[in-house]
Amino acid sequence: MRRIPFVALLLITALAFSIFSCRKQDEISTNHGLKLSFSADSVVFDTVFSSLGSATRQLMIYNNNNERLNISSIRLGNASSSPFRINVDGKPGTQLYDIEIPGNDSLFVFLRVTIDPADQQNPFIIEDDLVIETNGNSQQVKLIAWGQDAVYIVADQQIAGFPPFKVVADSLETTIWTAEKPYVVYGYALIDSYGTLQIEAGTQVHFHDKSGLWSFSEGQLIVNGTAESPVLFRGDRLESSEGLDYRNVPGQWDRIWLMEARAGADHRISHAIIRNGYIGIQAESFLKPTEAALRIDNTIIENLTGIGLFSRLYAIEAKNLAVANCGAYAMALTGGGDYRFVHTTIANNWNLSVRNNPSLFFNNFLLDSLENPIQLPFQFEMGNSIIYGANREEFNYEFVSSPDTSYVFENCLIKTERRLADWPGFVNSIANENPLFKDYENFNYRPDTLSPVIGKGKPEFALEVPFDLDGVSRTESPDLGAYQFVPANR
């Protein structure tokens, strides 16, 4: 038998291996476990305010597997109704089919959005998903574009354990937000330590889902609204959809989060409307006890899925404050602190879910790592105010016995099952009478004609805040709450 030369055998083997490899590479794998990778998990169009209101972005799709794959479809989640368009290998549309990508290769996808930034009917932020389906796997890349001309604050940093954020007022820096354009926050807008953010009268601040405003330890927030031009904090969805008016939908954003203030730098919120989030204001001593206070006046906090005003070991003074329609507590003042509320209305007729908590709750301790209470000083005073809601009991507390704890409600209307005469903390106060607000459903907490709060206020409290939330004088015969009754003929 004639033997094949060794060199020829090597050539035949190499040729066979090459043919086998080509065949293997040419075959399209149907392995469900193989997935694609992308150059980004989201594509942000942040320059759509050109003359045409359009922009183009590029996305890379990577097949990091050895096998060839068939992308059965690349489509936009909102299909033809989407303002986005895709282009793959020169093929444009909203849905493309059967696009092959070899092993260890990549694919260019060009994405375009066209928006009229002057159209006030647009949401501030327009979103869609690019959906890529391969071997039964569905993968998504988020598409984000700006829908109206505004100042967009987009998170660009994240620290483990904290939400994504963008610094808007750096250390030793004062930043001023004006009413010239709305501000839209995507993530958290952060005031850094020793930084100050001032928000001027008439400014509108809109938050995207899970977004908020965050003053880090020793930062400072100053909100300078006026009666004529309050500062508005709310979600970024303005549209109505299928009968749902997003102007009145709670839970659309997260919270205003205030850590401890530094000495001489109180947080100040004047003439503001905070609505439709999860928590209105969270004020807490996070890294150390606060050396300053949160001072609030002429402000409405309403329509929150969680808590209107939440604190831990803080100092808060509030006058002409309305807190309404909250899914958990209207106010939860915890871990001790020093609190004073004058002419405050708590009106909690939340009806979107079961609310098991009272509208007002406070305690004088925090728990250590072993769940043991650490008692902290607690002082609370409320005057000429209303605490009312749909529950039978709208006030509760939990105290560790201590001489450093005191509370007093003076000239207040309170919905409670307690017999106020047996409780020394209640002075000249009314229990369980309906304050007869004009219109709960339309967020009108002004007293109606037959309200029992009319004329029941203590004049000394009224002199501290002589005008109500509407600018009506109350010094002659003060009512309880943040609003003074106005006869129809006036």
Could you describe the 3D structure shown?
The model is unreliable at 19-23 (pLDDT under 50). The chain has 2 helices and 39 strands. The strands form 6 sheets. It has a 23-stranded parallel β-sheet that branches. A 5-stranded antiparallel β-sheet has the order 1-3-8-5-6, with no helix packed on it. Strands 2-10-9-4-7 form a 5-stranded mixed β-sheet, with no helix packed on it. The protein is elongated. It is mainly β. The protein folds into 2 domains: 37-146, Immunoglobulin-like (Sandwich); 151-464.
Category from helices, strands and their pairing? mainly beta
Provide the number of structural domains.
2
Separation of termini? 122 Å
Shape by Cα distribution: elongated
In DSSP terms (H or I, runs of 4 or more residues), the helix count works out at 2
**Which blocks of ≥5 consecutive residues have pLDDT under 50?**
19-23
Q: Outline of this structure?
A:
With 490 residues, this protein is mostly beta strands. 6% of the residues lie in helices and 47% in strands. The chain is built from two helices and 39 strands.
Quickly list its features:
single chain; mainly beta; 2 domains; 23-stranded parallel beta sheet; five-stranded antiparallel beta sheet; Immunoglobulin-like; 39 strands; 490 residues
Q: Layout of helices and strands, plus pairs?
A:
Layout lengths: L5 H21 L10 E2 L3 E4 L8 E10 L5 E8 L7 E5 L2 E3 L1 E7 L3 E10 L10 E10 L2 E10 L4 E4 L10 E5 L4 E4 L5 E4 L1 E4 L4 E5 L3 E4 L4 E4 L4 E5 L6 E5 L4 E2 L2 E2 L9 E4 L8 E4 L1 E4 L3 E6 L9 E11 L2 E20 L4 E18 L11 E4 L1 E3 L5 E3 L2 E12 L5 E4 L6 E10 L11 E2 L2 E2 L5 E3 L4 E4 L11 H6 L26
Parallel strand pairs: 2-10, 11-14, 12-15, 13-16, 14-17, 15-18, 16-19, 17-20, 18-23, 19-24, 20-25, 23-26, 24-27, 25-27, 26-28, 27-28, 28-29, 29-30, 29-33, 30-34, 33-35, 35-36, 35-37
Antiparallel strand pairs: 1-3, 3-8, 4-7, 4-9, 5-6, 5-8, 9-10, 21-22, 31-32, 38-39
